[in-house]
Design goal:
Layout: H1 2-27, H2 33-40, H3 44-50, H4 54-77, H5 82-107, H6 113-137, H7 147-160, H8 168-181
Length: 185
């Protein structure tokens, strides 16, 4: 019976995080907890049991986004083709950034996003590095690129290609150019 309660609590927490992310992206930090609870299909008390303050909720959202990125990287790392897996990870990360950006920008005003990210950064870096090295070992990614370059490219691409004024065709071509530039000459 305890496991059922734990599973219910886990599902409630996930629904609360999803609802909060959706509402924060759409309406900003002023969204009431009541609205988050309603969208999640739980009571306000359930929200406060999981997240005693809005700041705790914001921190959990940032951490959940980062954990999801680690999961995505691990899924791609298990792919049969190391080069295509690495490139698909890069593309997926850039594609997700538009959604993440709206949430992170708003939350960044309320909590120290960098501090929250630091708790999972080592695992994320190790996972991305393993993806990169596997693709380099297969000969499909330039060997003169390391984790710092990959992170800088991802950071720039996530912001630049997802800016509101970037045309979809320009965005698609830009991502293709970036990814082809990672391949050996």
């Amino acid at each position: 019976m305890t496991e059922t309660l734990r599973a219910d609590a886990r599902r409630n927490r996930e629904r609360i995080l999803e609802a909060a992310q959706d509402l924060l992206a759409a309406r900003g930090l002023s969204v009431p907890i009541d609205d988050i609870a309603h969208l999640a299909g739980v009571g306000v008390g359930t929200v406060y049991r999981h997240f005693p303050t809005k700041e705790a909720l914001y921190e959990a959202i940032v951490l959940a986004r980062m954990e999801h990125l680690v999961e995505i990287a691990k899924e791609f790392a298990a792919g049969a083709d190391p080069v295509e897996s690495f490139l698909a990870f890069m593309r997926t990360t850039i594609d997700r950034a538009a959604e993440d950006r709206a949430v992170m920008e708003r939350i960044g005003d309320a909590v120290d996003v960098h501090e929250v990210k630091a708790s999972i950064k080592v695992e994320l870096d190790e996972t991305i590095l393993a993806l990169l090295r596997r693709a380099q070992k297969a000969g499909g990614i330039r060997r003169d690129i390391g984790l710092p370059e990959v992170l800088a490219l991802l950071s720039g691409a996530c912001v630049g290609f997802n800016a509101p004024n970037v045309d979809a065709a320009v965005r698609a071509r830009g991502i293709d150019v970036l990814l082809s530039g990672l391949r050996p000459a």
